[in-house]
Amino acid sequence: MKHKLLPLSETMHYILLALREPRHGYAVMQEIEKMSHGDVILAAGTLYGAIENLNKHGWIEPVGSEGRRRIYQITEEGSAVLKAEQERLLHIISLYEGSEANEKI
Amino acid sequence: MKHKLLPLSETMHYILLALREPRHGYAVMQEIEKMSHGDVILAAGTLYGAIENLNKHGWIEPVGSEGRRRIYQITEEGSAVLKAEQERLLHIISLYEGSEANEKI
DNA sequence: GTGTTTATTAAGTTCAACTATATAGTCAGA
DNA sequence: TCTGACTATATAGTTGAACTTAATAAACAC
Q1: A–B: how many Cβ contacts below 8 A?
Q2: A70 has which bridge partners?
Q3: Which residue in B5, B87, B96, B99 has the most chain A C-beta atoms within 10 A of its own C-beta, making it the best mutation to test that interface?
Q4: Helix, strand, or coil (residue A36)
């Protein structure tokens, strides 16, 4: 599953995590702020650009709309990417000696 | 500790991890290939550019040389960055429901 | 002595993420 | 009701990390 936008950037990663539930762009922005305890606040341009990009790659897809709002959700391919990303991160964390995650991968 | 090259890219992250031991550029390249089980193979341009950048930011420093080889090692500031990065990754992993790392952060 | 590995440098390209701005609807309070 | 804040999306232009490619050169094996 080699792909040009792997490894996932923090932006892409959080958007995919947020879209495990169907959400429109603005709601994704708010969910990410919440998930990250306010550490990650995406600018509008970054958010909508990334959504367009993820949609183009088939990792998320539109699943309806409410007025101006366009609702997206992660696809099966997107979920597979998330799973691979989780394993990549667990591997990197295992390289920190003394880490609580050691010996897990 | 807000910084322009945070969050750490995979490249920067592996280089810092490799330089917890003193190493020259080429040895860093090999260590990263080994650490990542061959998944991450840095091109020469990427590696030396990143080393220059990390040195400029004070996260690694030259600690001697052997002929053409210039040996670098992580600084205290670099170690602090690694620690922060570890925590960031553990937090993101905790967002995966059912993950073994859940409830750790 | 020819080819491979070691070791570093530099030029030029790509694209995600950024800033900044434009647009427009909704909604609360003065 | 009008003024500002919030909701919601879009787009133009900039920056810089990571990439490809290639040049240079020493050391070593065959």
Answers
A1: 45
A2: A65
A3: B96
A4: coil
Predicted confidence (pLDDT) at residue A99 exceeds the cutoff of 60: no
pLDDT tens-digit profile of B22-67? 999 999 999 999 999 989 999 999 999 999 999 999 999 999 888 8
**What span, in angstroms and rounded, lies between the C-alpha atoms of B88 and B57?**
20
Q: Residue A40, CB half-sphere, CA atoms under 13 Å: how many?
A: 23
**Which nucleotides on chain C have any atom < 7 A from a protein Cβ?**
6-12, 15-22, 25
Is residue A26 within 8 A of residue A7, CB to CB? The reply is: no
What lies within 8 Å, CB to CB, of B77 at 6+ separation is: B58, B59
CA distances from A25 to A15, A51, A68, B15, B96 (A): 9, 8, 10, 35, 21
Q: Please give the Cα distance from B41 to B56 (Å, whole number).
A: 23
Contact across the interface for A10 and B7, Cβ inside 8 Å: yes
C-alpha distance from residue B37 to each of A9, A83, B30, B61 (Å) = 21, 18, 11, 26
Q: pLDDT (tens digit, 9 = 90+) per residue, A39-87?
A: 999 999 999 999 999 999 999 999 988 888 899 999 999 999 999 999 9
Q: Which domains does chain B have, with CATH numbers?
A: 10-75 (1.10.10.10)
Scanning the structure block, which residue is given the tokens 């606040």? A41
Q: Which two tokens stand for residue A18?
A: 């947020």
Q: How would you list the strands of the sheet with A23-24, edge to edge?
A: A23-24, A69-74, A60-66
